[in-house]
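User: Reviewer 2 asked us to show a designed sequence for the structure in our supplementary figure. I'm pasting the structure tokens here. Could you produce the per-position amino acids so we can include them in the response letter?
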């Protein structure tokens, strides 16, 4: 692998918020050295940055790379090869927007992760969970009321699999772990894009949730839970869930529980804005579109509450269909209630902590994987430097210009 030298950049340490002028030398896929006046080894490629800002590669901790439509109920009828072709296109766009690693929150599998790792498709490094676990009639059950048959075969392109009862959820979790899941996703409450549940419902019994957590922990993995309300979030945290996805309707007592359990919250505010304005255009059913208002306005207040209370936050977007192009807009939305540095940490070092890759991702320190993004301007004073993809000059993944 040819070494890469990025010369004369402005390097941001996302942990301290401090800038340093200097170069970044990438060799064998990792950051070999940083500092002023570095010497490029023989045969290295050199890129002049002229003072542009260098950040760690961005991490989106809640994506659905196979969700090429907002009509999630239609996905199981798609050919797996057709869904994979769409996923390749979606992943390529994510890399162009500066996201060098993503955590897929259901839908992607070992095939897509292997294809990306082997260079067969272009896109971010993919941390997948396979299919999300859902109770009958839960957020991962995409069947309309009159449909009885459900095909849960692994090759179906849907996002969820149905499992009811302690024994069944153990078997389902073990099956996803058998296929290489980096984490297990569970639907612990109602959702927008599901046809037969209420957003304010709780889903899965406490015994079922604990069984799923036990299986993940036995494999040295963790559980992420879809949940909106304080009640559903609290049940999931008490069961040992490590990350809560969305959490738009949490309250002050929930914030205290997050801190007590050292758990993460992954808000996904941009998706509600996108679903409200464009969702129906990209396939969101009318019944789901009408649910969006229940969580749209509350999300920003929940984020502000969590930030103020010291909750560990990671960056997520949860976009569907043609709305994936808004991925960077989450930076702008969060900056309404958080300092820019906090938002950047959520998409770098904090997200790396959630993924169990502290020191490997989300940092410019020597020894880390050489995932970098070079932007025009100072994102600490102007968040549009990362919120506007047109201001991204270079993306480096594993030491190679993407």
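Assistant: Here is a per-position design you can include in the supplement:
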């Amino acid at each position: 692998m040819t070494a890469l030298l990025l010369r004369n950049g402005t390097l941001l340490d996302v942990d301290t918020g401090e800038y340093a002028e200097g170069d970044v030398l990438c060799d064998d896929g990792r950051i070999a050295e940083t500092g002023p006046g570095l010497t490029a080894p023989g045969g290295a490629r050199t890129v002049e940055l002229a003072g542009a800002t260098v950040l760690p590669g961005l991490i989106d901790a809640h994506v659905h790379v196979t969700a090429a439509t907002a009509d999630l109920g239609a996905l199981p009828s798609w050919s797996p090869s057709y869904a994979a072709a769409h996923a390749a296109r979606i992943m390529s766009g994510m890399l162009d927007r500066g996201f060098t690693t993503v955590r897929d929150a259901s839908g992607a599998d070992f095939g897509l992760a292997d294809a990306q790792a082997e260079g067969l498709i272009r896109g971010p490094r993919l941390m997948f969970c396979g299919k999300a676990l859902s109770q009958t009639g839960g957020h991962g059950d995409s069947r309309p009321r009159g449909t009885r048959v459900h095909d849960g075969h692994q090759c179906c392109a849907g996002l969820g699999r149905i499992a009811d009862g302690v024994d069944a959820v153990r078997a389902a979790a073990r099956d996803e772990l058998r296929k290489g899941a980096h984490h297990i996703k569970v639907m612990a409450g109602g959702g927008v894009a599901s046809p037969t549940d209420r957003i304010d419902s709780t889903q899965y019994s406490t015994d079922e949730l604990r069984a799923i957590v036990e299986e993940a922990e036995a494999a040295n993995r963790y559980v992420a839970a879809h949940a909106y309300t304080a009640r559903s979030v609290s049940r999931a945290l008490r069961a040992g869930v490590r990350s809560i996805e969305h959490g738009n309707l949490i309250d002050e007592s929930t914030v205290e529980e997050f801190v007590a359990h050292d758990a993460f919250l992954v808000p996904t505010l941009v998706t509600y804005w996108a679903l409200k304005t464009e969702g129906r255009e990209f396939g969101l059913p009318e019944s789901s579109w009408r649910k969006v208002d229940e969580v749209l306005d509350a999300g920003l207040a929940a984020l502000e509450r969590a930030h103020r209370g010291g909750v560990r936050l990671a960056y997520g977007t949860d976009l569907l269909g043609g709305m994936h192009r808004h991925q960077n807009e989450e930076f702008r939305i969060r900056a309404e209630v958080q300092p820019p540095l906090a938002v950047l940490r959520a998409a770098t070092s904090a997200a790396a902590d959630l993924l169990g890759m502290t020191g490997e991702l989300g940092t410019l320190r020597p020894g880390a994987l050489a995932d970098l993004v070079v932007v025009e301007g100072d994102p600490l004073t102007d968040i549009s430097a990362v919120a506007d993809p047109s201001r991204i000059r270079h993306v480096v993944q594993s030491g190679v210009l993407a």
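For the response letter, you might also mention the following. Residues 4-57+363-401 form a domain with the Urease, subunit C; domain 1 fold (CATH 2.30.40.10). The longest strand covers residues 4-13.
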